[in-house]
Amino acid sequence: MKAVRLYDYHKQPIVEEVPEPVLSGPLDVIVKIGGAGVCRTDLHIIEGQFDKVMGPQLPYTIGHENAGWVHEVGEGVTNVKVGDTVILHPQPSCGLCLACRAGRDMQCTDAFFPGVSNNDGGMAEYMRTTARACVKLSPDTNPADVAALADAGITAYHAVRKAIPLLHPGTTAVVQGAGGLGHIGIQALAATTSTRIIAIDTHPDALELAKKVGADVVVLADGDHVQAVKDLTNGVGANVVFDFVAEHGAEQDGWLMTATGGSQYIIGYGGELRIPTVDFVLGQKNVVGNSVGSYSDLVELMALVEAGKVALHTQQYPLEKAAQALEDLANDRVRGRAILVP
């Protein structure tokens, strides 16, 4: 089969022929990939940022946002069968540790992360995962239309879901970065809260997308956007700021836009937030970190998708054009999410 393989850090991965994955345990599932999302994390992997964190052994197949059709199942699998359409939670978990039993899949003590850690990912024709990662979808779902919801989608939804108690009618939420994750976050906010949504981005076309998917107000990040948010909130600031950028100064802007007693939810990464401790004390503000959502978050998000309340905007590429997709993402030429289709 064809797969996108990373051989060296700081060099583009290549598409080559490799053996198809095989079942190795009773709960294993082989999935025929119908769509694989291209994520900024893939760029960070190529740059070597995950070398010491996850320690993947090169070469391996990247790709952690995957959906497709069940191709083969282990003898212990009962929740899906061959032919089912599925989206895959990006980090299969054990189901037995305390974190799993509490529904905190991403904190599983025995998890693995295909496409990020030492397990081959889904930028390929086939991928091995486990039964616990599979969420069964309607058979008429096109996997390429939803694949990136497996990570980008639940990451955005997870942050929004945590903030719902803070976003009652009369509140304001800022979404900083209306791209691949941000446009999903806007839709999740519109579907689950009554807050006023202000979207901020450096790209006018991203702001056009933000308007279409539910933002009440859009603001161009042109150097005056912090003041614009203050003006829109009578000088108070936003009750919640969702920072999907969190680098190149956006993380500091997010803090300045957050109202006294408000919360800054940080989802993007790469920058450094520096705040005098007195600002925490006197401002009574919160900074909340967010990682990938749980299996339950993915199930809930797909329910919103099937209800027509969330839709992923995609730019699709054949698998052979993986290098082009990664280059387009790195150079901000992708609106929504880039998807590889084998």
Automatic annotation (TrEMBL):
Its needed co-factors are: Zn(2+)
Q: Which residues form a coiled coil?
A: none
Q: Known SUPFAM superfamilies for this protein?
A: GroES-like, NAD(P)-binding Rossmann-fold domains
List the PROSITE patterns hit by this protein, alphabetically.
ADH_ZINC
- Source organism's superkingdom? Bacteria
Q: What Gene3D superfamilies does the record tag this protein with?
A: Medium-chain alcohol dehydrogenases, catalytic domain (3.90.180.10), NAD(P)-binding Rossmann-like Domain (3.40.50.720)
Is rRNA processing there in the keyword field?
no
Keywords, sorted A to Z = Metal-binding, Oxidoreductase, Zinc
> What top-level class of enzyme does the UniProt entry assign?
oxidoreductase
Describe the location of the Enoyl reductase (ER) domain by residue ranges: 16-340
Entries under CDD domains matching the protein: arabinose_DH_like
Tagged with keyword Zinc: yes
Q: Which GO terms describe its molecular function?
A: alcohol dehydrogenase (NAD+) activity; zinc ion binding
Q: Which InterPro entries match?
A: ADH-like_C, ADH-like_N, ADH_Zn_CS, ER, GroES-like_sf, NAD(P)-bd_dom_sf
User: Which EC numbers characterise this protein's activity in its record?
Assistant: 1.1.1.1
Query: What catalytic activity does the UniProt entry give for this protein?
Result: a secondary alcohol + NAD(+) = a ketone + NADH + H(+); a primary alcohol + NAD(+) = an aldehyde + NADH + H(+)
What family is reported? Belongs to the zinc-containing alcohol dehydrogenase family.
Q: What is this protein called?
A: alcohol dehydrogenase
Species of the source: Rhodococcus wratislaviensis NBRC 100605
